[in-house]
Amino acid sequence: MMRKRNAIRWFLAAATAALLFSAPTGGGAQAAPSAGPKAKPPRSLRLYVFDCGVLHNADMGRFNLKKEDVTTTDMSMACFLIAHPKGNLIWDTGAVPDDSWTPTGRMMTQHLLLPDGQTRDADVDKSLRAQLAEIGYAPSDINYLALSHYHYDHTANASQFAGATWLVRQVERDAMFGGKVSGTVQPSTYAALQKSKTIIIKDDEYDVFGDGQVLIKAAPGHTQGHQVLYVKLAKTGGVVLSGDLYHYPAEKTLNRVPTFEFSQDQTRASRIAIDAFLKKTGAQLWIQHDFVGNAKLKKSPQFYE
């Protein structure tokens, strides 16, 4: 009997090892992310924060700052899912395209070569697609895509959501497809949006679901059609996702405007307008690139409600 039990144990161990060593390895296309149970529409508004990596940025001069002005020069890259009873919105999509690397479960540095010849280093350990799958969503489940603006570190996975309705301002779309851009872009990452169903936002404030809970607000200056997102959560309260209205908290406290804005004057005016909105609503401002602030936020699969 003992021999029979040992034989069975040996067979199961060998079979498990065979499965492990026969799994595909190395680069190329990513393996399909393991999905959680299919998500159902939530009963109330939820905000998920995804970890889309860390961008290394040593040049503080571009932000009219000095290294001693900031706690760290590193910049977080957050992506967001707003899950509403009436649909789902993705806000910003990171700097590293999911299909350009293969996750290994540990942090990896990706060297980004941009069309203008500049290079950037970004650390990532999770793909956006896998983080969505973990909570039961696929790109096909996303109803709306909104980008704060067209810079490369916010558009990396935009084309994954080309099947969603794109919410964008005309001046921003025009710049992205044939117009004059400000700052560094990676057009290949958002090319598919050119054929997406599109809603052109014409007013300063756009109510995504028609109930005042998710508002896209104009904040031009960083780019022509830069915008921020207001999310009114029942328990957490109001939150404004900054896009690149600010990159570092020091820009706000020291009143510094980056050198590479489309219009520094527009940026200053937008900051004044959004500050007034924050005071009026009592909302929090989440500076998306704030490495220290972002580290304190709970990440998906946890959520804010």
Structure description:
The protein has 305 residues and is an alpha/beta fold. The chain contains seven helices and 13 strands. Helix 4 links the parallel strand 7 and strand 8. The N terminus is likely disordered.
Structural class: alpha/beta
Poorly predicted residue ranges: 1-31
Largest sheet: 8 strands, mixed
What letter string, H or E per element, gives the SSE order?
Answer: HEEEEEHEHEHEEEEEHHEH
Rg, nearest Å: 21 Å
Q: How far is the first residue's CA from the last residue's CA?
A: 57 Å
Question: What's the number of helices?
Answer: 7
Please tell me what the overall shape is. Answer: globular
Helix content: 10-25%
Task: Present the secondary structure layout.
Layout: H1 2-22, E1 46-56, E2 75-84, E3 87-91, E4 108-113, E5 119-124, H2 128-134, E6 144-146, H3 152-155, E7 165-168, H4 170-176, E8 198-200, E9 205-207, E10 214-218, E11 227-233, E12 237-241, H5 249-253, H6 264-281, E13 284-286, H7 291-295
Parallel strand pairs: 3-6, 6-7, 7-8, 12-13
Antiparallel strand pairs: 1-2, 1-5, 2-3, 4-5, 9-10, 10-11, 11-12
